[in-house]
Amino acid sequence: MTTIKTPFALLLLTSLLGCSQNDTNNSDTSSKPIIHESFEQGGWNAENTTLPISTHQPGLDPSLPMNFLFAQLQGPHSFSIDESKARSGNYSAKLLWKANNPSQWNGDPQKLDNTDRKAMFHGKKAQSNISTVWYGFSAYFPSEHTQFTQNQGALFFQIHGARDGQSEPNRIPPVALNLKKQGFSLGYSWDSKQISTSTQGEGNDTLMIPANLAEYQDRWVDFVLKVNTNPFQEKGGITLWIDGKQAADIQNIQLGYHDKQGVYPSFGWYLWGEYVNRDQDVIMYLDDVRQAEGTDITYSNVAP
């Protein structure tokens, strides 16, 4: 894959869209322990397992380490342990999102809610809205169940903001990685205001990483992201590696939201927007998930 770096014009555009403000939170350079989940114990566990948005929790085992923050699983079918495919060890997580009548699983069966769109695990929060976070994971996209038309796609990883109460709208994720027919799209956004008023933030942009999708199906694909969040100044950045090769390097940008809490990662399917309008299920396998925070973390600490 060709390495794609953000051109100067794009960085200039983000500079113009962003709102200058002094930093209000100091980043903590000390590292937190690296969290590793490979589903080798046959299930999963999370800190929050009684949320109203987490009605279905197949595979939940309260005896396991709480390696996730919470889960959003469309239905009882959305998670299972798979023994036929593993990036390492003997097991992986099979994440299934069903296209047929997707609103039937949570709340009002006539209303498509957020969890109806997901088969996703959410990871731990960063210590601050200014932070250096690293994430690594392996994904297996079976070609039979990851077919997309020209306008279709599916998000399979994101970094989410933690909004400050109900006074703020649900906002697009500060970082979003989507699987599309044309390759991978990497979206990012920011908002320096203490109270966000827009679902789109103060500014956002998307970088397309062209790829032949067939070359990334029916095998394990390794993803590593290093993300520096800073919603106040152009000191943020995203570096993405796919299969050990740098695929995107976006630096000197504002990134993230002016929230009291730091961002958190999400691993798995999210059929956002019009992506939900499809007649085929989507399946992915997830393994070797690592989460880390700190300026002294390196690629090798989180790479699958």
Please identify the oligomeric state: single chain
Number of strands: 17
Measured by DSSP, the beta-strand proportion falls in 35-45%
Structural class of the helix and strand makeup? mainly beta
> What is the rounded distance between the termini?
18 Å
Largest sheet: 9 strands, mixed
Tally the helices: what do you get? 2
Outline: globular
Q: What's the helix-strand series?
A: EHEEEEEEEEEEEEEEEEH
Tell me the Rg in angstroms.
18 Å
Query: Which bin fits the share of residues in helices?
Result: under 10%
Mean pLDDT: 89
The unreliable regions are 1-29
Organism: Pseudoalteromonas undina
Keywords: Lyase
Protein name: Heparin lyase I family protein
Provide an overview of this structure.
With 304 residues, the protein is mostly beta strands. The protein has helices at 8-17, 299-302, and strands spanning 4-5, 35-37, 70-73, 79-82, 92-97, 118-122, 131-140, 153-160, 175-180, 183-191, 203-210, 220-229, 236-242, 245-253, 256-257, 264-270, 282-293. Strands 1, 2, 4, 5, 7, 12, 13, 14 and 17 form a 9-stranded mixed β-sheet that branches. Strands 3, 6, 8, 9, 10, 11, 15 and 16 form an 8-stranded mixed β-sheet that branches. β9 and β10 form a beta hairpin. The chain starts with a strand and ends with a helix. It comes from Pseudoalteromonas undina. Keywords: Lyase. This is Heparin lyase I family protein.
